[in-house]
Design goal:
By secondary structure, this protein is of the alpha+beta class. It has helices at residues 14-19, 61-67, 82-90, 98-102, 141-147, and strands at 2-5, 23-28, 33-38, 41-46, 49-56, 71-76, 106-108, 114-116, 121-132, 155-167. The strands form 2 sheets. Strands 1, 2, 3, 4, 5, 6, 9 and 10 form an 8-stranded antiparallel β-sheet that branches. It has a two-stranded antiparallel ribbon with strand order 7-8.
Length: 168
């Protein structure tokens, strides 16, 4: 069971939450969704409200779902789900049913966005902005060499956090 909370009530360290614990970015519908593990992203305030920023490479199957949906969700899990998150970050939904493989239960936010009942925290985000990363704007040339040897630059999405759900 989840309780709706104000995003300002989040008391976790967002650097650890995203960078160390990871998250699942999910979009689509309850009946047909795709998810991917991410350890890059951000939470903050923009345009007068709480937002989440996510980065998705062009070859990721989840990109199609985020592009074709008005919403995406970020699901955060406890350590018991580390193997499932590793699978969701290493396998493509084009090849396997990741939701089934991980034993996740798809739930649906009020806006219809899918998330996972096993999560401890869920952020429901309404897409507000996207942009493709432009390597011409890297001020440190080593970023391009180190992180983009395949020139597969991320698409950046900023989502307004419209709902925050914490497991009771």
């Amino acid at each position: 069971m989840f309780t709706r909370i104000d995003p300002k009530e989040l008391n976790q360290n967002v650097f650890s939450l995203i960078g160390d614990q990871w998250m699942l970015i999910t979009a689509g519908t309850k009946e047909k969704c795709n998810t991917m593990t991410a350890s890059w992203g951000g939470l903050g305030v923009l345009w007068g409200g709480p937002v989440a920023t996510v980065y998705i490479r062009p070859q990721r199957y989840t990109l199609e779902f985020v592009e074709n949906s008005g919403y995406f969700t970020l699901s955060f899990f406890g350590e018991a789900y580390r193997k499932a998150l590793a699978l969701c970050g290493s396998k493509s939904g084009r090849e396997i049913d990741k939701v089934k493989e991980c034993g996740f239960t798809v739930a649906e936010a009020g806006c219809g966005a899918p998330y996972f009942a096993e999560a401890e925290l869920v952020l429901v985000c309404r897409k507000a902005y996207w942009q493709d990363m432009d390597p011409a704007h890297f001020l440190d040339g080593e970023i391009d060499n180190k992180w983009y040897p395949g020139k597969d630059y991320h698409r950046i999405f900023i989502g307004e956090i419209v709902e925050a759900l914490r497991k009771e």
